[in-house]
Amino acid sequence: MKFRLATIVVGLMLNSAASGQNIKLEITGREVWKPVTLTIIGPMVNPNADPNPFRDCRLTVIFENGGDRILVPGYLGGDLNWHAHLLPDRPGIWSYEVNFRSGPDIALSDDLNAGQPLTGDGLKGTHTVIANNQQTPGLLRYVGGRYLQFAGNNKYFIKAGADSPENFLAYEGFANTKPNHKYYGHRVDLILGPQERYTSITNICSVASYFAKVGVNSMYMLTMNVDGDGKDVWPWIKPDVRDRFDTKKLSQWNDVFKFMNDRGVALHIVTQEQENDQLLDNGELGPLRKLYYRELIARFAHHPMLFWNLGEENTNTTAQQKAFAEYIRKLDPYDHPIVIHTFPNQKQKVYQPLLGFDGIDGPSLQIHDMKDTHAQTLEWINKSAEAGRPWVVCLDEIGPANTGVKPDAVDPDHDDVRRYALWGNLMAGGAGVEWYFGYKYPNNDLNCEDFRSRENMWKQTKITVDFFQQHLPFVDMQSHDELTAAKDDYCFALVGEVYAVYLPPRRTTSLTLPVGRFSVKWFDPRQGGKLQSGSIRSLDGPGELPLGDPPADVDRDWVVLIERDQP
Fold it and tell me: Which of 5, 149, 259, 324 is spaced 20 to 30 Å from 490 by Cα?
């Protein structure tokens, strides 16, 4: 059966120009690193129609500028019109061409000539994009090293995120969703911009406002857990109807995702929970899985701060994992980072065969004993570098599963988490952390309503990330624990220039330095603040030289910053 959209007069917005075909088309947005949305407006399309508008219709818009060609998949929106989002990386005149086709399972085909043309197919035009004067960070991307980098301002990203609740999207304000989260307590945190108006999604947006205040810059969230712990998140009209998508719900998700990105919170999209590994196509890259990935990419890939995770505690085969990653990589026009999570005792089984594979940009580490964080971060940094594709190694879940990061009311100082997990990852060259909340405590991995329950941990994480961003050329530094005399500290260095040494409580140490004079400053990883002077203010190399004592509180942990004096 051939589909047709009603033919109505072309309507264009802003300063776009299009060839004359009888279809109404709108283009909104015009700034670099801000979404430009092309909308084809027609009569209402019933998501339950037959043929299936998700499988049997396919919108792709081809954008071009400066010889670069970007194929952007489109989708049927909550307003029941068709949309495609360009995330432009440069100002200038962008041309576009609409590819709008119909046919059985056309959405699964990458042949632009497959199927039959729908009204609007072949529509061409141009749209002018202007520079963004707000110094927007831009697309967060993998650039071949240990850290993700923003394409707009070239700054590097260190993750300071929340791993719980994994069913973050099981929110009462979303259509067709079990109301397991309400987030009422965060209503006081909501700060809206002048053009922002939200009603049903106000409380979940309030969480993002709180995150922005305390420095949380990433949120881990399942988009599908039909089976598993929560059984409360899916993108479809029903959990057992897996080729028809809930356009209203997904539009609401998109609004929340925009709100989060606008406040500097990245989207860690975890595409399935372990119990769902075989749910789509018996674990293969079949039609239902391809459609699922296409819908996620078409609807959400235009958000600049996003990374795809192939699955929590994933048990698919290596061949399946590679097929998933290759398909996402091919379809995602913005090449977002792709990572994978696994059980603590299956890292060798899962990660070793993926080393050097260009579809994976890093592991999403789950570690049962946080004391192993430093060694395991180093292990996968070194192994991936040796394989020729350095990984971005983040710590996304610490155990035991019943504990994780305890509430402040139980563990107000979080000394062990700070020492072994937070500083353990970053001083190995890791790219950051997300904090998991164990099921033994209130506000846990399934029922967390109040993120203030771990506010002290958010503050300490921000203190640490700020130290790295403000005082260290961390992209050029590496772990050099061998340069200190102590066996239980961490040393991170650009040898000959800058050294950071994390000292556990009641420790002092010496550091092997080359020829030259070096300044010595101390930093409080618990409270932050300015750099301070200790008992020794400078060192003259070469040799193994004592770092002295901290300014105060010798029974607490400290960080020593040693920098070569500039002539």
Answer: 149
